[in-house]
C-alpha cells in the first residue's frame, strides 16, 4: 500500500498518543494534549497515512526571524508494523525540506543507543555536537544532540 505524507490532522492525535505509548514505553510518551499543544503553537507536523490510517508522524519547530532561523525536530515516530519501509526517512526528508526553505540550521536529540536513528540522521548531514546525560525520563537514558547546518542556495 502506498503511504502519503500530509499535514497531521487533529482527529489523528489520539492515534499519535497511542503510537507514542508503543514506541516510547518506559519513557514519558507524549499525550494527545501534548500533540494538540504542538499544533496550537503552529509547529510543522506531518502524518504518514496508509489510506486513512496514521502509520507515522513527525514534527518540526522553527524559531527566529527570516534569514536567521533555527529548526528543531521534535519527534519522528513510525508504527512498528510499518517500520523498515522508508517512512521515517520520508518524514525526516520532508521536515528537512521545510527547514531548507527557511535556510534554517536543524537540531535534534536522539537516544545514544538508537543506532538506526543515528545512522539515518548522519546520512542526512547531521553531526553529533553534544551529550545530554539522563535526558530521557524516567529511564535516565542519555541523548546526543545533533545538528545539521543550514542549506543555503549558492548563486553563481
From TrEMBL:
InterPro entries: AcTrfase_RimI/Ard1, Acyl_CoA_acyltransferase, GNAT_dom, YpeA/RimI_acetyltransf
Keywords: Acyltransferase, Cytoplasm, Transferase
Annotated family: Belongs to the acetyltransferase family. RimI subfamily.
Organism: Actinokineospora iranica
PANTHER family: ACETYLTRANSFERASE, ACETYLTRANSFERASE YPEA
Domain N-acetyltransferase intervals: 3-151
PROSITE patterns to which the protein is assigned, alphabetical: GNAT
Coiled-coil segments on the chain, per record: none
Record's keyword annotation contains Transferase: yes
Protein name, UniProt field: Ribosomal-protein-alanine N-acetyltransferase
A single MF term (Gene Ontology): N-acetyltransferase activity
